[in-house]
Amino acid sequence: MTHDAVVRAIFDQAPALPLRLATVVADDESAVRALDQYHDEAILRLDRLDGHREWGIRLCREQATQTPSPKLDGDGGARPTGTAYLQRRRHALRAGEEARQQERALTEDVFTTLGAFASEMDRQPGASADVVLNAAYLVDAAAEEAFLVAAQSQVRALAPHGIRVDVTGPWPPYSFAQLRSRRVADA
């Protein structure tokens, strides 16, 4: 929590490139060498982050979407024929696949719609059986209000589909502060 408090205090004053928690630098000389080596890329990244904050969007299923299973008893309680069972099973599988396709389309629409208000966007780890989208958006301060209005619109639009939209932030742009060059990745 102290690391986060320090990063937030710095970001309140100016853009920064926080090291990941538990990053180890052997000594002051090693830190100076790293700063020298990545100086140009760091300056570009700092310029990109200036005036931006991170917002998170998580889409969660309110109720588990399950493929309906075919009923074993037919009309009047009699066991269905094999053909009737297979037809119902095929229908249930098709309905489940259509529901998954609709959910993927809704998720992609949210991701790109909100991305229109962001300088950068990224899918984050954390998707699970109930989390269908976990995304981060780098939003310029001038666009934050429009971003939040669009996010609230998504909250209302997805509720009838059993999808909850969680909006988090604003955060220092942790997800967008990392240097991305091959040299940094190799270090």
From TrEMBL:
Domain of life: Bacteria
Entry's Gene Ontology cellular component terms: gas vesicle
Compartments where found: Gas vesicle
Region (Disordered): 62-82
Biological processes, Gene Ontology terms: gas vesicle organization
Keyword line: Gas vesicle
Residues annotated as signal peptide: none
Family statement: Belongs to the gas vesicle GvpF/GvpL family.
Name recorded for this polypeptide: Gas vesicle synthesis protein GvpL/GvpF
Organism: Actinopolymorpha pittospori
